[in-house]
């Protein structure tokens, strides 16, 4: 490889001294005005990257200047790290002191408030507690208004023309209901669908046949959305009844923001009019929340003609 000319070496020497001088001046400035952590390391990396470009083209003094400049930038970065750690430690001490002061102030405030309560007469203390109870009651009532509290609802069907029942959702409880959906399981509709399937498919005991029956049952279910409502009742539309000689039977699973419950609804026709028996209970615990029995609803052997779960001993509440 050809040796560089003297003019080229002079150019490289000037560039080398220019870079070294610039980085030295920056390092000296930073020794008295420390930068943030990382800046010194950044320019140290720049100097270390540039140094090989000039190393073979400059003399010993220039090389030593490069090394001195790198050590200067290294010292700057080291001091910046120490300063950052010291600042962090000082800030941490101040923060802990402020937190301790805040906790001390809170403790002092609590102690003063307790002392003030103790200094009150029995009458004033009773008034204070009464106001506190009123506030807490208002807060609790506001939360229940937002969540629905213990309110629930059920669907009542009204007889209409052409085998259509008008659906009205009735709210029980004083709080509005939100995010309500009703999964309607119609026994007459399901029974008819299964009968039609049996007519075209011979019964079988294999698992695939059972899965088909289950799929038909699920397909006969209806998901009925219920808009949020705060009124005692709300009409939500019509429902096409499946023709049946014995009546109608529904199980309606409600899901809402405040929980889930199930309505059991039986409809019978007496003298051309619908009579109904309605029971609302929790699906898991079986706790009865509400029931409504029309006086003319038919009985069999003295018991309501319903398939609802009955206790082993005694009469259920809706037959007492």
Structural summary, described in words:
By secondary structure, this protein is α+β, with helices and mostly antiparallel strands. It folds into three domains: 6-90; 122-148; 150-319, no CATH class. Helix content is 49%, strand content 24%. Strands 4-3-6-7-8-9 form a six-stranded antiparallel β-sheet. It has a three-stranded antiparallel β-sheet with strand order 1-2-5, with no helix packed on it. The N and C termini lie far apart (114 Å).
Multimerization state: single chain
Radius of gyration: 43 Å
Beta-strand portion reads 15-25%
Task: List how many beta strands DSSP finds.
Answer: 11
User: What order do the helices and strands follow?
Assistant: HHHHEEEHHEEEEEEEE
| Helix amount | 40-55%
* First and last CA, distance: 114 Å
Give the spatial strand order of the biggest sheet: 4-3-6-7-8-9
Tally of separate domains: 3
Write a concise keyword list for the protein shown above.
three-stranded antiparallel beta sheet; elongated; 11 strands; 320 residues; alpha+beta; six-stranded antiparallel beta sheet; 3 domains
Summarize the structure.
With 320 residues, the protein is of the alpha+beta class. The protein has helices spanning 6-32, 39-55, 60-119, 122-147, 187-200, 207-219; strands at residues 152-159, 164-172, 180-186, 222-226, 233-240, 248-256, 259-270, 273-281, 288-293, 299-300, 303-304.
Give a topology summary:
Elements lengths: L5 H27 L6 H17 L4 H60 L2 H26 L4 E8 L4 E9 L7 E7 H14 L6 H13 L2 E5 L6 E8 L7 E9 L2 E12 L2 E9 L6 E6 L5 E2 L2 E2 L16
Helix pairs in contact: 1-2, 1-3, 2-3, 5-6
